[in-house]
Write a structure and sequence with these properties.
The protein has about 290 residues and is mainly beta. It has helices at about 140-155, 265-270, and strands at about 1-5, 10-15, 35-40, 45-50, 55-60, 65-70, 75-80, 85-90, 95-100, 105-110, 160-165, 170-175, 180-185, 190-195, 205, 220, 225-230, 235-240, 245-250, 260, 280-285, 285-290. The longest helix has 17 residues, at about 140-155.
Length: about 290
C-alpha cells in the first residue's frame, strides 16, 4: 500500500499495488498501475494492513477509517479533531491501535459497531469538502462535537485508552503476545504498554531516545527481543525490549534515520536472502543496512 499525504487542496489517498503481477525487475520509466482505494479532502498520515490482508486502517486528519479490501467498502471507526498520526493492527487483526497528535492512544475493536452511520457524509470526499465539517449548521456541529467527546467516555469506540506526553509518532505491536505494544512520542518518550492494564501506564520505558518534533519509526527484530529506532541526533539506538537496557548507540549518517525496517525471517526465506539478523534504515543521506545485529 502507498499513501499520499494530500491537503485541503490536494486529496490524500490510499493506493494498492499487486506486487505478484510485477516482473523481477521493472524499468524506472515503465508505467506501473495502481488502484486508488480511498481518497479524502484532507491528510492521510498513515496506513496499516491486517495480517490476513482483508482490511486496511487509515489514519487521517479527520479520524480513522477502516477499508474492506475485498468488498471495496469503507467506514469510519473514529472521528475527532486530533490527527491520527500512527496506526497498528495487533497480530489477531481484531484491534487497531490509533496514535493521535494530542498524545492519546486508542484501542479500537474492529468487530464492534462503529460510528459510520453517524458520520456517513464523511465516507466520500465529495460529501465533505471541509475536513472539519464547518459547513454544517451550528446545531449539527455541536451535536457532532458532543458525540466525538463522548465516544471514549462511553467506551463505544475503544476498549481502552492511554495518553502519552506528546504526539504519538510510531507504534509496534508484538506478535508473541498481542496484549503488548510499543509506542513512541515526539518528545522522545518510548514505552511498552499492556492493553489489559492501560490505566497503569507503561510497563517499561526506554531511555536515551532523542526526538522533539519528528515522525521517527520503531522497528522490532523477528524474535521480538530488540527495539530499534533513529534519533534526531542522527544516532541509531537499540534497546532490550524486556529489560529496557540501551544496548547500542552509534551515528553513521549526517541526517536522522526516520524510517527503519527489520524484516521477518519468513521474508528473508521467501526472497532467498542469507541475512537473517539485519535491519534497513532510511535517511536523507540514503539507505543503510545493519548486518549481524
Amino acid at each position: 500500500m502507498i499513501t499520499t499525504l494530500g491537503s485541503d487542496v490536494s486529496k490524500g489517498s490510499l493506493y494498492s499495488l499487486d506486487a505478484n503481477s510485477l516482473p523481477d525487475f521493472v524499468e524506472p520509466t515503465s508505467p506501473v498501475e495502481f488502484e486508488c482505494l480511498f481518497s479524502i479532502n484532507g491528510t492521510v498520515w498513515t496506513a496499516d494492513c491486517n495480517p490476513s490482508g482483508t482490511h486496511a486502517a487509515l489514519g487521517t486528519s479527520m479520524g480513522s477509517a477502516l477499508l474492506d479490501l475485498e468488498a471495496r467498502s469503507q467506514f469510519w471507526i473514529y472521528c475527532g479533531k486530533s490527527d491520527v498520526l500512527s496506526q497498528q493492527f495487533i497480530s489477531s487483526g481484531n484491534v487497531v491501535l490509533c496514535g493521535l497528535r494530542n498524545g492519546l492512544i486508542l484501542t479500537i475493536d474492529t468487530r464492534e459497531k462503529h460510528i459510520s452511520n453517524n458520520i456517513a457524509a464523511l465516507n466520500h470526499s465529495s460529501a465533505a469538502p471541509n475536513p472539519r465539517m464547518t459547513n454544517l449548521p451550528l446545531g449539527r456541529r455541536e451535536r457532532r462535537r458532543n458525540f466525538v467527546r463522548s465516544q471514549i467516555d462511553r467506551g463505544q469506540i475503544s476498549s481502552g485508552h492511554v495518553r502519552m506526553t506528546s504526539a504519538v509518532c510510531s507504534m509496534a505491536s508484538l506478535s508473541c503476545d498481542e496484549n503488548y505494544f510499543l509506542a513512541s512520542s515526539m518528545d522522545g518518550s518510548i514505552k511498552l504498554f499492556d492493553i489489559r492494564a492501560l490505566r497503569n501506564g507503561g510497563v517499561q520505558s526506554y531511555e536515551g531516545h532523542i526526538n522533539s518534533h519528528s515522525r521517527l519509526q520503531l522497528a522490532v527484530n523477528p524474535s521480538e527481543t530488540l527495539l530499534l529506532t533513529g534519533g534526531e541526533d542522527c544516532s541509531v539506538r537499540i534497546w532490550g525490549i524486556k529489560t529496557g537496557e540501551l544496548l547500542f548507540s552509534e551515528t553513521f549518517s549526517e541526517s536522522c534515520c526516520t524510517t527503519v525496517l527489520w524484516p521477518d525471517l519468513e521474508g528473508y526465506a521467501r526472497h532467498r536472502l542469507d541475512q537473517s539478523h539485519g535491519a534497513w534504515l532510511g535517511s536523507r543521506d540514503g539507505l543503510f543496512y545493519m548486518q549481524d545485529i
